[in-house]
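Need tokens for this chain, all 302 residues.
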Amino acid sequence: MIQTKNAQRGGNAAAAKKRPMNPMQRVKFRRRIRAAIQLFFFVLAPSVYTSCFSCIKAVATAIGAGEPFAYDSFFATLVVICLYTILFGRFFCGYACAFGGLGDAVYALSQFIQRKIKKKLPQIPEKAIRVMQKFKYVILIAIVVLCAAGVYDKLPGWSPWDVFSMLTALRGITAAYAIGAVLLVLILIGMAVKERFFCQFLCPMGAVFALLPVMGQYKRNRENCLPRCSACAKNCPVCVETDENSLRMGECISCGKCSDICPKRNIQYGKRVKDGNAPFPVILKALLLFALCLFLSAVRTF
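Here are the structure tokens for all 302 residues:
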């Protein structure tokens, strides 16, 4: 009798171990994995974003001056990250960008405070978001034009990107960068109000990545969806409809929140992968990206 009860307990324990996680457990588990990867890259490779951005400015400046641009480490970093984005989507934006990771942390803190005080900040209407998302292309064009005209370098101290680079490099901010520091604070306020505020509305590199052709994207089959569900759309931080014929998929930052939250597991990555945000593929893509950062010498040495 005792052996039978022990066997039953052992069977129940084994069944509990094999029992799949419920949707909320899956969401929390994958959210922790993503946060860990973001922290890892923020600490060890915070300069990848600014390296890519510096290359864009250098190329535009060289073209404006009629000079050949240097094929340096900045250029190599931009090319590699763009190729990686074409192969794996905007995984860099969703998991490894220091600015994106900072934005997610600020927004999470804002949400925590709002829950504690039981007050919510006003939400930006979706139509306004879709219009505002185009502003980052205006910023990209403006920066390219200013660099080509030789004006950008004559405006020192106003760039929030330079201030952010100083902070991640553990350097002090001088009074000459007061304007840039103020702009960075305003961006942080925006990050607290709207998820991925900077990435959606202001990021010039986000504009570049959004224009790249991508081999793999998150897609859903509407025929298998639950009626009036829209869980994927409601949880998307950049307001992308995961439809195969969507013209706005360039905005997708490959965070996988749509795949995690879907109650019917109806969202696949590319044509074959049913769960493109499963922990093992995500970790493999992160390790590959980190190996590329090591190769490019874009990893911080303490």
